[in-house]
Amino acid sequence: MKNRLLPILIILSTIIFILRLFWVQLINIDDVQLSNKNSVQRVYNYPDRGYIFDRNNKLLVENEPYYDLMIVPKDLKEIDTIEFCRILKIDKKTLITKINKAKKFSRIKSSVFLSQISKSDYAIVQEKLWKYKGFSIQRKSNRNYLLNSASNILGYISEVNDYEISDNTYYESGELIGRQGIEKAYEKELRGLKGVNYYQKDKFNRITGSYKQGIYDTLYKLANDINLTIDYNLQTYGDSLMINKYGSIIAIEPSSGEILALVNAPTFDPNLLIGRDRSKNYINLKNDTIGKPLFDRGLQGQYPPGSTFKLVNALIALQENVINDKTIIYCNQGHYYSSRRFMKCHCNIGTINNLDKAIYNSCNTYFANIYKQSIEKFPSSSIGMDNWKKHVSSFGFGNFLGYDHPTGRPGLIPDSKYYNKWYPKGGWKAATTISNGIGQGEILTTPMQLANLSAAIANRGWFKTPHLVKKISNNDINEKFKIKNYTTIDSIHFEKVIEGMYNVIEKGTAQNAKIKGIKVVGKTGTSENFIKINGKRLQLTDHSVFIGFAPKDDPKIAIAVFIENGYWGTRWAAPIASLMMEKYLNEKINRNYLEQYIYNGNLINEYRKPYLKSNFKINE
Which of residues 213, 228, 243 is at a domain's end? Predict the structure, then answer.
């Protein structure tokens, strides 16, 4: 037995060694890299990032080459730091910092020393690079945004940070990732999948050929191109109308939920956030505390909807059988909703309003009454309020809607729990919340939600989730964007409200929104504008709001326009919406006088008012 023990041990050791060698050499490439990290170099191959087009195949985003200067700290030799810094346009402190960062990452692995070198700088660097051992050039591509606005839609790309590298093993230092907008929302589709080649190196660190004849090499997977739902001509036209104005224009195709335009003002050129000046430009944009160009007003702005919300309360009152289209309510320039509280209205004394007239005259008294009745028909205010919220929420208010953009805020639709917190002993009732009846009070909405409301009314009671992507390399969009979302309001009630909206244009508060040959429907709104400074409530100029769609009986475009500090709906929002609809439906503008009025409009002084305390009044 003793004579057999040694041969058995030798055989077992040999088997274990062979199995381990088989695992290392053929199965586990990670072990190969660890055990041969001095002799194997890994080089990634990157597919070009996917192109972005508009709905009509107009190119919006393309790629252009750039170059990364790579470093392997182990191979560094003494260099002429003065010349090297001059070539790269950096100072000596930056040079030392970047070398130390590379050493911390790995002394023997290649990492990015200086990213996004332009073609012109690359020519200079390449000519001198032979003098600087340990440095090499890696070619990549960067974005070129051909639409020098719409930064809120497109987003941008930049280098991954340390957190993203640790959170996602796909990325390595120096690689690019989508930030904001479509670039972020569709990062995986736009980036493709990188490939990798492994190269054998000799003891002098020179590449001698592919590692194991390239059996571990992988090809990259092509990225996807994306077609947006955006109409380039409509988007750029909207940008031109918003010069010297802050706010948002959102246009939707009602039948599909496709977003035709998503204008944010003020905007900026997304190319500012590309290249080596990105950080400096970002800081400048962030420091613009008046214009706030990084703030997407259409998706993040939360405002009272004003009188546009009266349409929702009308539909709820019809659904709850509180009123019909012939119900009469008298207005005497306002409404007493308690013995001492009075809500003003611009109607003349003794005005008699049915639903149609109340909509086109925008009567506060009418809508305050029907809101109150819609709550009070239930056994308690709490039950009535929660039922009211159920109806309102079915239009997409109070949530993010589910659109394919990473930015947004939900707004606010209060319920009984909300008021119970403010009135813990239950001391509230419908009259306490009466401002909700005219789109003020605690209600907050986003312009996107208002555009969706317009689409839901255009469709007579349903909407498809608004979205920005039409197709991905000829593949279909997510199924959720094809589903009809029905409101809690029966379709029969919408025609009564739409008739009133049509008369808003024909003989009501937005007659300047008429388009010859096209039946336009809409509703103006004036949204109260308060801010707090040093604990004091300061009243600024109200916001101008309009929602609508056209044509009336075969809607092709639904729209919401929100102009900050724009006085009232008729002054700015209604004519801007009208021009947008005319541009989309007729492809040209015949009302040049109206277009020039908007072009010449300048509200910049209104936005400076918070910094000029004598220009506004204080409401304690």
Answer: 228
Question: Which pair of tokens denotes residue 85?
Answer: 């810094």
Helix (H, G, I), strand (E, B) or coil at 319: helix
Structural contact between residues 524 and 545, judged by C-beta atoms closer than 8 angstroms? yes
Tokens 């003794």 sit at which residue? 350
Who contacts 365 (Cβ-Cβ below 8 Å, separation ≥6)?
A: 329, 330, 331, 332, 334, 335, 343, 345, 347, 353
Cis peptide before 266 (omega within 30 of 0): yes
pLDDT tens digits, residue range 159-206?
A: 898 888 888 889 988 788 999 999 999 999 999 999 988 888 776 666
Q: What domain range is 95 assigned to?
A: 40-228
Evaluate whether 401 touches 465 at the Cβ level (below 8 Å): yes
Backbone angles phi, psi at 524, to 5 degrees: -85, 160
Q: How confident is the model at residue 35 (pLDDT cuts 50, 70, 90)?
A: very low
**329 and 369 inside one domain:** yes
Contact 216, 29 (CB under 8 A): yes
* pTM attached to this predicted model: 0.86
Q: Are residues 212 and 174 in the same domain?
A: yes
Boundary of a domain, candidates 228, 262, 295: 228
Which residue is associated with the tokens 């004036």? 526
503 contact partners, CB below 8 Å, separation of at least 6 = 356, 357, 359, 360
Beta strands in 172-246 (DSSP E): 176-179, 195-201, 207-210, 226-228
Please name which of 449, 454, 467, 446 lies closest in space to residue 555, comparing C-alpha atoms. 454
Q: CA 389 to CA 380: how far, in whole Å?
A: 14
Pairing of strands 156-159, 176-179: antiparallel
Contact yes or no for 546/575 (Cβ under 8 A): no
Cis (ω within 30 of 0) for the bond into 551?
A: yes
Q: What is the DSSP annotation of 8-38? A: HHHHHHHHHHHHHHHIIIII-HHHHHHHTTT
